[in-house]
Please model this.
Amino acid sequence: MLKTLCIVLFALVFQSASAETLLLTARPGEYSAGPIGDDAETLSISTSFRITAYDSGPDWPTAAHVGFFQGENRNESFQFIIVRNDGNAPYLTAGYRIVESGEEAHVKSLAYLGLDSSAIIELEFNKGVVTVKYGKQESFKVKTNLTRVTPYVSVSSGSAEFEMRP
Model:
């Protein structure tokens, strides 16, 4: 009886600490996004995410994003992104971008991935600086103009799965 009780308690503790999986879908040329927390001056995100379906049109490639935005929309944001830049490319590009006033202000590619690959990242936001830990690469810092942000995930022209880690 005690052994059974211990197993049940362990299962309950493990379940409460386990990851939450989010699925998002957007039609070609469309975008689907949602906040995954409240706005704050310091935040962190840890996730493994991947594109599960490709449905790009001529103007908008399939992409999945994880990041932080400031204000009412994503016109001021930091986004870690995996994207299939060319609709027929046999790979994804992983990297990040900073969006200011609705325009890409800075873009950096970090790696190429297979189409069925996952990106594992940790993002920390503190006083305008985003610390990025991507896969097994060394972490690095990116300065932004953001001051108070909301964490979010999004997908364009396809479907993506986000496994949010505690």
